[in-house]
What we know:
Mean pLDDT: 92
Strand content: 15-25%
CATH superfamily: DNA methylase specificity domains
Amino acid sequence: RNVAYEQSSIYPPLPTQRRIASILSAYDDLIENNLKRIKLLEEKAFASYKLLVKSEKLIEGKVGDLADVKSGYAFKSRDWSDEGFPVIKIKNIGNNDIELTDCSFIPENIAETANKFKLNAGDLLIAMTGATVGKIGMMPKTETSYYLNQRAGIFKPKVETAELFLFCFFNEQSAKDAVESLASGAAQPNISGSQLESIKLYYPKLDTVTEFGNSIKSHFELIWNLKEQNTKLREARDILLPRLMNGEIEV
Length: 251
């Protein structure tokens, strides 16, 4: 009975718990509001893309006309460490997003070896293996350097802002179907960079591709800022919670 009493007494009084919940919910509300704004901005970009491909005279080509697709660095099992520089794997790519938590790490000497695979804000990434094959995401702004693992692909644009046109294209059902068709046939879905480059793509003249990208770039810059805000909000909330619970910060 004494043990049970001691365990129950570690929690702050109920009124304090309610005030803590109110503080934390304010963080959650800000995060949720940013997510809604991100969704609206993406929908605006997709609407602009649909209007473009309906109104312009299109060239029948392939994805490789606009970008090369390169796989990430083949890190060895001995390269991983408990801390250092984070690495984006296929599990981090999905639903038009790059999940920056739950990353594996490499030390500085390995990062120097893999320098060509360091990611930048706005890089368009795609999962090339497994259940999430074909899922894409754009690298958000970060203060930390991230690196790309093998079996995750990166689009290297041949035309300025082509990655934004391709981001919209790979959200089309026809593109998803093409990826699924090419990736099937093995025990585990798998697609290569050359297969992705071979996917049929209808696009306007290249100057128009660049103009389109420039016209929606501000949407994505705002999306990256909102995602960066959400990362900082989550970090602040997670730091705050134990301090509130143990009474280090009074409410």
